[in-house]
Task: structure prediction
Amino acid sequence: MDELEGQPDQLISFHIVVDGDDHATVSINGELDMSGIDPLAARVDEVLGNGVTKLTVDVGGVRFADSSAIALWVRWASSVDEFELRDPPPLLRRVIEAMGLAEKLGAAA
Amino acid sequence: MSSVESVQRPPATSRGGKAAQPVGAITASRTRSRHVYWLPLATLIIGLLVTGALVLVSQSQYESNQKHLLNLRVRDAAALLGESLPATAVTMSAAVEQANFTNGSIPRFQRLVAPAVGTRPNQFESLSLWKVGALDQGPLVVVGSPPKLNAVPARASAILAAASRSPTLDVVGLLQAPNPRIGYAYANPTESGGYIVYAERPLPANRRSSLQSTNQFAGLDYAIYLGTKQTPQALLVTDRARLPLPSPSDTQTVPFGNTHLTLVMAPRVSLAGALPKNLPWIITVLGAFLSIAAAFMTLRLTQRRRGAEELAGRLEVTAEENQRLYAEQRGIAQTLQHALLPDRLPQIPGIQASARYEAGEEGVEIGGDWYDLIELDGRRLLLVVGDVSGHGLRAATTMAELRYAIRAYAAQGDDPAEILTKISKLVDVSESGQLATVLCAGVDMEARQLSITSAGHLPPLLLSNGDSRYLEADVGLPIGVQEGTVYRSTTVTVPPEATVVAFTDGLVETRGDSLDRRLEQLRAAAPSHDQGLPELLGSLVSEMTNGRSQDDIAIVGVRWTS
Result:
């Protein structure tokens, strides 16, 4: 029962800054996978529901992201007017490229 | 020929075997619980034994102390008793001296002894003067009542004759009822014979006399005997109705004239005070109370410990149950997964096909990975590998939807690019939060051509003549990003007896490593396995995951056999 000892929530940390009427910056650190994205998704949905139309997601501190996390970013990208995935580490950028999502996520090399 | 590598079934969970163990544990703890009363009982018994020992010690200490104190008191009393005789002798010796000096003057004798005769304590009942040598003739004079001694004159003269020969006070017991008396005879022998003074003093009625409460010996019963024998006839006085005195008693013999007095005393109360006497009782009550309290506490502790053990046992059972449920859920997920995947692959001459599905190590949920191999006509196949993001029933239902949609579009003759465009309508990340990467490759067996179309999926690997490379193709958006996405196919021709392997990203799990390094690792590993296709797929999976895959893996391969 080792998986009970791992605290998936603690592998990820994030904070959201709404800077301006319509712009927010989400900074994410750690390993982002299906087990940990629900709190993040809920908080960002809240922000998006409050009139934010420009979203910057700083993933400079993301060590790993699975397809669920990438799907989350794609969903955000689809629901705002301007979207930027800032500072994706090379490993992450390569995964995004392999999925054909570099342009969609504004993370072209 | 083609073959199907069956999906690895979850190991059969041995429910019976695992269930038996917790039951055994419960039985064992119940057996232990029967012993729960032993320890408190032992505590009680030991406590009572210790209490009993203390009671015995304190009782024996009390008794020895009582005896010692009694002995001291009886010695004191005996000393006082011994001193009473000289006081008696003073009057009598004075009378003897006067009689000798006055040659037996009766008036002077009467005047001298009158104050000493009466009924008050310490007074004589009878005092008489006798002449030595004329004892047969009775007393010269009697003050008070007639001497009882003289009831038998011969005996009286014999006793007084004996008394006249010694300078001490002779004591005579006249103890026959009624009116028992004690007689004293005193003489001071001279050459001319001289005189004897004889006195009698009454004993108390029934020889009973209680000490006054202020007396220093008030706490003691006593009996005084004349002589050294404690017989009823020799009894002078006692405060008790019944004799002998109860144990413990102490006896002292004191010289009394020409005989002795025997003093026997027994304490009515504790001579050392109330505490030593009551100490054994106090110890009994306190010891019993403490023993019971200790036994009770031991019982509580034992019960608590048993409770903790039972709780631990239950937790153990719960953990076992969780383990079983986990295994069962994992088994269900894998069974369902298996049901959603092709149960057989098409058999097409000239092509060998194989596929594997490996559930992630920790996954109790069904995954969204799939593979498919669809026979289009006698010479063409559609090879599909896909991966819906996330896990669980939602991912699995989307996967099933996409898989059957692809089969349907393929059946109506759409090419891979058209199929992906059409299924792009089926998923919307904005609504479901899901994406799917799909690789669709049309395989022309005779032309050895692959028409590869990728919706965000990793490229397939080509193995040929001991070499390997990825079949890079144009990568379009994953399914779910944008409805109506147009996909482009990339057509490649492969060498004879080539092998093409398509897979999902679980095979090149990138947690902690780069995707490019992992893809290169896979590519480099592939040619070293000169194996049949099913074995090759198994080897690649185990080599890339070291037998521990975190994510689900779908892998499918086709090999031209001629």
About this structure: The two ends of chain B are 10 Å apart (CA to CA). The interface with chain A takes residues 319, 322-323, 326, 362, 387, 389-391, 429-430, 433-435, 437, 454-458, 475-478, 480-482, 505, 510-516, 551 of chain B (CB under 8 Å). Chain B has three domains: 11-102+273-330, 103-267, 341-560. Residues 103-267 of chain B form one domain.
